[in-house]
Design a protein that fits this description.
single chain, 282 residues, Jelly Rolls, 2 domains, 10 helices, 43% helix, globular
């Protein structure tokens, strides 16, 4: 029998966390049951999911993939996705972690993860230990947490993606889908810019109407709604920093008007920026 359990550890990166290539923001474990609805939460992070027991069903853009014991699923939760226990499995026990890092968007695109989100690590036991260690670092919390978590993530990534990198060649002739993924990366890199649909369509080399329709089909929401959530996620990270000022955070995240920032922040998170900062995040 699979145990009934769910465990989640949130983490606020320390002052010098940016010195490390990867940041783990949340990690945990869960047992999903066949009768439970799929999870579709938008974290606007890259999420790795390791199957410990049972079978999971991963859905990306209408395509379904079966995650069996030892497999790792890579999801970009800024895009439309779902995962659940496979109908023919008594339960699905998995470990997961939400991460950020330089180059993840580009690597996700280069490896074609959206079309093939499952990876078979060369050493499943080592991958499992790495996932467990990240949760352990969060539970213990020390000045070395960010460094240790980054190293564990790097090890998992090297183990899982090395086979797919062999023989892979970048292409200059990117498909329309690749261009949309590039737009996501461009927006993430300059959240303060007052983006318009015309700007984004130009980046994707599409007409505004084509861009809007293809973006919504691929990501599951409109470009401006995606950008709003990305800005609020960035604001959450900045607000828990030392001496953070709401007006300054608003400006960095693309809100020259603090009132509109506070309105959107509350709509997305349920908190005012001031309360979120005072409570040290959630």
């Amino acid at each position: 029998m699979l145990p009934e359990s769910e465990e989640i550890h949130f983490h606020t990166p320390a002052k010098f966390a940016g010195a490390f290539p990867y940041l783990a923001l949340v990690a945990g474990s869960r047992v999903a049951r066949p009768q439970e609805p799929p999870i579709r939460k938008r974290f606007h992070q890259h999420v790795f999911v390791y199957t410990m027991d049972g079978k999971g069903l991963i859905e990306v853009r209408g395509q379904r993939f079966l995650a069996e014991t030892g497999a790792i699923a890579w999801l970009d939760t800024a895009q439309a996705y779902a995962h659940s226990c496979a109908p023919d499995s008594g339960g699905w026990r998995y470990l997961w972690m939400g991460i950020e890092g330089h180059g993840l968007d580009a690597l996700y695109q280069f490896l074609g993860v959206q079309q093939s989100p499952l990876f078979a690590p060369k050493d499943p036991s080592a991958a499992k230990a790495a996932f467990e260690s990240v949760s352990g670092y969060f539970a213990e919390r020390s000045p070395a947490t960010d460094a240790l978590a980054s190293a564990a993530i790097a090890g998992v990534m090297a183990d899982m993606i090395a086979p797919r990198l062999v023989g892979a060649e970048p292409t200059e002739d990117r498909s329309g889908e690749d261009r949309l993924l590039q737009v996501l990366s461009v927006m993430r890199g300059d959240l303060a810019r007052p983006w318009t649909i015309d700007d984004l369509a130009a980046c994707a080399r599409l007409s505004p109407s084509q861009f809007f329709r293809r973006f919504r089909d691929m990501v599951g929401t409109t470009p401006m709604d995606w950008l709003r959530h990305e800005r609020i996620n960035q604001a959450k990270r900045l607000l828990v920093g030392p001496d953070a000022k709401v007006s300054a955070v608003a400006a960095v995240c693309g809100y020259p008007d603090p009132y509109h920032f506070s309105r959107d922040f509350r709509r997305v998170t349920g908190y005012t920026p001031t309360k979120f900062r005072r409570d040290g995040g959630y």
